[in-house]
Design goal:
It is a single chain. The protein has 311 residues and is an alpha/beta fold. It has one domain: Rossmann fold (3-Layer(aba) Sandwich). The strands form four sheets. A seven-stranded parallel β-sheet has the order 3-2-1-4-5-7-11, sandwiched between helices. β2, α2 and β3 form a beta-alpha-beta unit. α3 crosses α4 and α8 crosses α10. The longest helix is centred in the middle third of the chain and has 21 residues. It is globular. It starts with 14 loop residues before the first strand and ends with a helix.
């Protein structure tokens, strides 16, 4: 039997474009690819937003998701594209569906068509476990039934991401593209303007009660390494992979943050024993996915975020 390692190859000298390179996950993807030896092209609207990546070796090319001509130019000469840019703002479930559609659906269409025009076949598509129908008492794997995005199930974000991934597979077939899809769970990391930005505000409290809902929180660095693993393994082409972290309660995440910061409230977990469980076996086997311990991930995050949020 051929092992995953036997089917992998080096990214040394390969040029990989990353859309949304200045976002939370995008920064980690760029760094993982750089570490693997790739030449990384960050495709963003505003390079100044992540200027620090330029000093680390990322080449920036300016393009908006809804500017196909600029995207085509940005993808020229690339060996692969990571379709990562998307709209997601936690706790704003009532944001207009049209806004999500423009970024997550129209933007995806333009990325795939532009990659094809630029002569790029290899694409890694960042989706979400939000495409699934969620059942708290069942483990989610890659064959779990999905929501119907066209019927706007799951809200604007989940619905448009489900449509986006379905579109990616359609383009894979119609344009002859080599696509791999990754479905991260609840992602956290440095420069996190959703989960962690909210938790930082609680650090000054003496006591903090939190519900004990469990979710598979995944570190953005681990998602990024899964992207690199997929690009290094052509056996991943045509496959979708769950890349979710270990099951943790919200209180576990806050406690890890308090430990990493060296200060914060006493965290109390309120009894509400429900949660979502995701099976990552396929990603672990094929692309080397690994979810590092919560304490390690939080320590790495604070090494970057502490100067900004610890005041």
């Amino acid at each position: 039997m051929t092992s995953t390692a036997d089917r992998t190859f080096s990214l040394q000298g390969k040029t990989v474009a990353v859309t949304g390179a200045s976002g939370m996950i995008g920064v980690y993807i760029c760094r993982s690819l750089l570490k693997a030896g790739a030449h990384v092209v960050g495709v963003v609207r505003n390079p100044a937003k992540a200027a620090f990546l330029a000093t680390e070796g990322v080449e920036f090319r300016t393009a908006d998701l809804n500017d196909p001509e600029a995207l085509t130019l940005a993808f020229k000469g690339c060996d692969a594209v990571v379709s990562n840019a998307a709209m997601y703002v936690a706790m704003k479930f009532l944001m207009a569906t049209a806004d999500h559609k423009k970024a997550n659906v129209d933007g995806t269409r333009h990325v795939y068509e532009s990659a094809h025009r630029a002569g790029v076949k290899r694409i890694v598509h960042i989706s979400t476990f939000g495409v699934y129908k969620w059942w708290p008492l069942r483990t989610i794997n890659e064959t779990t039934p999905q929501i119907n995005g066209e019927r706007k199930q799951g809200g604007p974000y989940r619905a448009t991401k489900q449509i986006s991934e379905a579109m990616a597979w359609q383009f894979s077939a119609s344009l002859g593209l080599d696509v791999t899809t990754l479905r991260p769970t609840a992602v956290f990391g440095a420069r996190d303007f959703n989960l962690l930005r909210t938790l930082y505000k609680f650090l000054k409290l003496p006591v903090l009660p939190l519900p004990s809902i469990s979710l598979p929180f995944v570190y953005a660095g681990d998602v990024a390494d899964a992207v690199t693993g997929a690009l290094r393994n052509d056996a991943s082409i045509g496959h979708a992979y769950n890349v979710g972290g270990t099951m943790h309660q919200f209180s576990d995440v806050m406690k890890a943050l308090v430990t990493a910061c060296g200060r914060g409230p006493r965290v109390l977990a309120l009894p509400l024993p429900v949660g979502l469980r995701v099976d990552n076996t396929k990603a672990e086997r094929d692309i080397g996915f690994y979810s590092r311990p919560l304490s390690q991930a939080m320590a790495e995050i604070m090494a970057e975020d502490a100067p900004v949020f610890s005041a």
